[in-house]
Amino acid sequence: MPSAVFERPRLVVSASLVIALLTAGVTATRAPAAPEARALPPIPAGLTALESNAEDLVDDALGHDRTRVVATSNALSASAGATTGKTLLAAGVPARQIALVRARVARVARDAHAAPYVVVALDANAVSTAVTELYLHFADRVPIAVRRLDTIDRDAQLRSLAGQRAAVPLVVVELEKTWAPLRQHVIDHGGQTVAAAYARHVAAMKHLAAAGGSPFRNEAVNGLNIVDELEGVFM
């Protein structure tokens, strides 16, 4: 049977080994520093062109100018081309999002030559809606909710113009849901006045939604103008 004289040193060595292993374990755990959030790239010119062309196309369609509608549709198709696609992919935009934008742009191209103007306008705003979500992948000072409000107000205007009365209240619900969490953020950035104005706008949209018509569409346009001021709060 081993002597106690030899047992004690062995226990000391074992304890030292455990401490060493634990220390090594802690070191190994802490070694890889927590990765910092990936810095988002700046907004590319291609994305800005997509947004601008889609918005211009809505205006051209509402102006009942077929020549301009076709020309702007062509410009929109060009801005959704391979170069922009590569830039978006490199920034981490999922391929499915790019495919959605291109599918909507293709629909615009099909409708631009002969479809009713309000249909073209709705098509173009659908492009804007998809393009808005791309901004999440870039360093954008404007909150995504502000950009969403822009397309929702426009959608409300256009669906009323198209006589889609059943869709109008649903769009207004979406407008209210998007605005509610954004309101305090606007106020915190010094936008108390514009926040109050947009809150009144949302209330007016809810009041006018059932009847629709010109008063509702005029209020939707008022909302679009206020959204421009909301953007300015963050610029």
Average residue-wise pLDDT = 88
CATH topology of the largest domain: Four Helix Bundle (Hemerythrin (Met), subunit A)
Radius of gyration: 28 Å
User: What is the tally of helical segments?
Assistant: 10
- Tell me the CATH architecture of the largest domain: Up-down Bundle
Number of domains: 2
Highest CATH level, the class of the largest domain: Mainly Alpha
Q: Please write the string of helix (H) and strand (E) elements.
A: HHHHHHHHHH
Low-confidence segments? 1-37
Class based on secondary structure composition and strand pairing = mainly alpha
Assembly category: single chain
**How many beta strands in the DSSP annotation?**
0
The percentage helix is over 70%
Shape: globular
Sketch the major β-sheet: none
Strand content: under 5%
Distance between the termini: 83 Å
Topology, element by element:
Layout: H1 4-30, H2 45-62, H3 66-79, H4 82-90, H5 95-111, H6 117-134, H7 144-161, H8 168-188, H9 192-208, H10 213-233
